[in-house]
Amino acid sequence: MEQLKGRIIYKGKAQGEALVTSMPISFYGGVDPNTGIVLEKGHELQGQSVKGKILVFPQGKGSTVGSYTLYRMKKNGTAPAGMINKETETIVAVGAIISEIPFVDKVDVSKIKTGDQVNIEDSVVTIP
Known about the structure:
alpha/beta
């Protein structure tokens, strides 16, 4: 079992299958809020759904509307169960907080692979 300690952006508990990308994500225009499917052309996760996953990515990018896109996804039931970043920025941080999605950054995301079962509990990320 591996435990990675990070910084809490939004405190909480989440568990699920990791969906990992080395590319930044823009929620506004890059992810369909109605389905949770990544739409951004050329993105590593294009065509895959973030719904119910532990979404692991380096940081967000794009418009501040991305915060509200995450909130809309939460209301639609298409949001990730939790998120882990290498270094977050304001857009994704605000989106996670207003959507109440457990979120940690300052984590060595290279230790997490797609398909890993991941637990987030406050500042600790556990990979069984």
